[in-house]
Amino acid sequence: MLSSSPDIEIQPPAVVPPWGAWLEAYLKGNEEAFAQLVHGTTPLVMAAALRRCGGRHALAQEAAQITFVDLARRAPSLRADATLLGWLHQRAARAAGDLMKTEQRRAVREQLAAEGTGSVYSLDDNPGSTRWENYREEVDAALARLKLEEHTAILLRCAEGLEFEAVGTALGCSAEAARKKVGRALEKVRASLARHRTGISALVVARGLAADHAMAASGVGGAGVKVLAAEFARTALATA
Average pLDDT of 172-195? Predict the structure, then answer.
């Protein structure tokens, strides 16, 4: 079992975002705090949605919007701490998975109508995919099987790029304890994947999550994160 997290190349943020404080402020009626929370977590949510949607930006954005509407509605029942990241990640993956199932059923119906045959295909078929791309859905399923704090520990380190001292502060433990938490959580993901006959290492998972988050943070679907997050927040607040 791993005693520490894999060595991954990450660029930690200059300031650790106050996710819990933003949520608490929103619960007191501060809608600007909600907008800040959405902006601060849009890369994480979009990265999770894009993985489950196979890179389909329109579907991923729809899944992200569903996630943030649910955040606005369920805010009073959520923990105002770092585990909020784990909840958002899981919710985005579920929303994207549901949208993909609907899209696949629609595509199958259209193909059958056009060809008049019983032959179907999967939207996930992509012979040119890399190893990570092939296993993204399985990785998200393995993450969802973790305890919320374990899931959050991985996201803080691998997606948000926090140093272990900051991860520990967010989770209420020392830097060394945080290192061990991340390592054990990644090992659980690896073992879970192995049980489901998906043989990728903890290092591949860590680096894949970091790469997906970086891609989402740099701007997705031609829209900058700032613009996208602002639209997510406006719609969520209007809908909640």
Answer: 94
